[in-house]
């Protein structure tokens, strides 16, 4: 089946009627439904399915073994995300298997389609959780303590989904099977729009991280507390949100965003006791930006009689994808362009351990992580064809 047809098959899974778009988070109903869908598609193709100790799914064409060619992506989304981010790489990988068979290609090396869990960090706050755990770049003890917005730990969620929390963690034997890894993804930007083709290869991923600022004051009654007798953490939180924009704008090539803010207890007629603010910062000057944001937050908190605590939740250095593999893929596809990205990917995590590459499919809107994210069906299918071409080369 074509990649666009497979994407249409899952178009109704995880629709978010409140936010628009899709909300599919690791081990929730929508994501589990998509896992079942993937398992069915793998069986229909005669692929051998296994779930690893960290909840990632592997569908093998040929028995698992060393020097494997691996492709795939993720099925989870950000809250209210688009239809393409993650699933496009998975459906394209399945379609590429079909295309290779139609072309009479039988891989000489083991080939696998992988679905990584919690790439977006939409439930437990750490992006690329499945690939970070497998490679050992995230300690298991830290991951198991992570909590979702309802207070459920990752350990409990994993246990409910049939995983053994005591086995979660680095999996060097599995990662060691990978000879080359290629991830196809919808472009998150407009680099391809003016270049005249539907596909590009990836060059770099900029450094990026997430931090949580917790402002603490005095919860109280909104009507009974005079304005000059308040320690309201919402004020320094709001001032910090504005400071993030100002500070990032003065740092070249840096992007910083506050996309989530959570007051506790969150009542309309209640002065909050605490407010959590999540900062996403990316670019070459992130450490100094975070220091300046922290300084602004402390000054604003002190002025209101509040306190603030800053905690790093994740960090990824700049990634340069394997140049030889990048150039090999570009040449095989007719010298398609190489594009940088400000978005993180499982391929970037794996690149520290195995040769890894990215393929991007044109997104005419340039919008991602939102319902307006888009790719034409013809471009989706062209991406799957390109993926089949490079997989055939790498697996021979």
Automatic annotation (TrEMBL):
Q: What Pfam families would the database entry show?
A: Peptidase_M20
Q: Signal as a keyword?
A: no
Q: Which Gene3D superfamilies match?
A: 3.30.70.360, Zn peptidases
Which InterPro entries does the record cross-reference, listed alphabetically? Amidase_Cbmase (IPR010158), Bact_exopeptidase_dim_dom (IPR036264), Peptidase_M20 (IPR002933)
Question: What keywords would UniProt list here?
Answer: Hydrolase
**Keyword check for Flavoprotein:** no
NCBIfam families, per database record: hydantase, PRK09290.1-4
Q: State the family named in the UniProt similarity comment for this chain.
A: Belongs to the peptidase M20 family.
Name used for this protein in its record: Allantoate amidohydrolase
Species:
Prauserella salsuginis
Q: What is the lineage of its organism?
A: Bacteria, Bacillati, Actinomycetota, Actinomycetes, Pseudonocardiales
